[in-house]
Amino acid sequence: MTGQPDGPGGAGVLAALPAEHSGRLTALAREAVFPAATRIFEEGERADRFWIVRSGTVALDVQVPGRGRAVVETIGKGALLGWSWLCPPRQWHLGAETRDAVHAWEFDADAVRDLCAEHPALGMALVTVVAETIGDRLRATRTRLLDLYGPTGSQGSSSAP
Amino acid sequence: MTLTPLPYRVVDRRDETHDTVTLVLEPDGEALSPFAPGQFAMVYAFGVGEIPVSVSRAAADGQRLTHTVRAVGAVSRALCGLRAGAAVGVRGPFGTGWDPAAARGHDLLVIGGGIGLAPLRPLIDAVLTEPHGYGRLNVLAGARTPGDLLYQDEFPTWARPFAAVVVDRPSGGWRGRVGVVTALLPEARFTPADTTTFVCGPEVMIRATARALAGKGVRPDRIRVSLERNMRCATGHCGHCQLGPLLLCRDGPVVGHDQAEPLLAVREL
Ligand SMILES: Cc1cc2nc3c(=O)[nH]c(=O)nc-3n(C[C@H](O)[C@H](O)[C@H](O)COP(=O)(O)OP(=O)(O)OC[C@H]3O[C@@H](n4cnc5c(N)ncnc54)[C@H](O)[C@@H]3O)c2cc1C
Ligand code: FES
Asked: Do you know which PROSITE patterns this protein is assigned to (chain B) (predicted)?
């Protein structure tokens, strides 16, 4: 358990929460360490926890039938890893695998939901931060669908290897 | 500034990616005045046409011109096909440039998408030659695929304190990062209130990036973006490059995002 001076802080999700809320939340955090190339969760499995990345990077992927896993995004320091725990069906939408060694704060979803029920203001603040993360990922996906690096209509390098 | 093209000759060429080539040009007589980072030349492929192309490396001798060109149409394809010894016509220097001097003492974020990294390279070079003139330099580059990433071998020398690349569509066993270029921002090291940002790439990338930067607290007038419009005269006379009240060949291509944002939001002019 943490919450001590070297507890989570700095950039990212936790920094976006008011201090009293992040203090309560970080009191529930466990340290987690994943070596490089570790599968943290798989698409469709039960989403009963989440992480905040402290160092290292995690690739998020989807299963493409017949072609294996396709990485759709890589997240790093300060990022929220996993939001599927927040609402039903509470199953991971994507898979996650570490690219390099990852240090993270791990949170038990039931415990966090209980904490939110006990402290509605904290719950509201946390849900707002999670919604921001979901919003960011949605915007990133939309931007990529607009073909971020090629002007509209250009065939450009879309035939790249 | 020279208004008629001067003859230059290709003295070196290097394939950067499957569709992008770097050409080094040397004057065949009189040379153009030196280019500042972010400025562009009008390069004429004989018999095909003339297009604006930024300088992608400052000349050590003030004479040679380095351009990185992506083949997208008739003229750029003709330029990419040139071999050593071939002749071209060049006018310039044109445009506002990045003006790194105005960013002195600030942390710097240099953000390039695709071929947009080319005009940013002289700026990076200029900052690196003056390590104490600026705060922390961060270079962030995004590309469609790993095969589209420019200047990869130079990234290690740019990592002061942070340089990273991200691709949109991983392929060929790519083990690097996947996502949009703004995904690199959380790892960059900068103090938003004291940062100048230089952004170049397709407009949709510029818009997404500028919005993310503003969200982090970077002042819109310190987000310098380079905009692309069709250019013909490059001297502020023909109106081809107009964006609202701006003629981008003269008032741009580099402008503050505070100035660019309301213009980019206009659907049609
Ligand atoms: C200030 C300025 C600086 C520039 N610097 C560079 C540079 O350093 N390197 C470089 O390669 N280009 C640069 N460009 C872009 C370059 O001028 C255009 O790619 C070129 O004008 C296209 O001319 P073309 O005759 O080859 O293609 P066109 O026949 O005019 O166009 C062919 C097709 O390509 C599309 N297209 C046009 N431009 C682009 C583009 N940039 N990317 C993808 N598709 C496009 C068109 O919509 C069209 O469908 C710069 C442009 C400006 C305004
Ligand atoms: S290109 Fe003619 S006015 Fe700008």
From this structure: FAD_FR
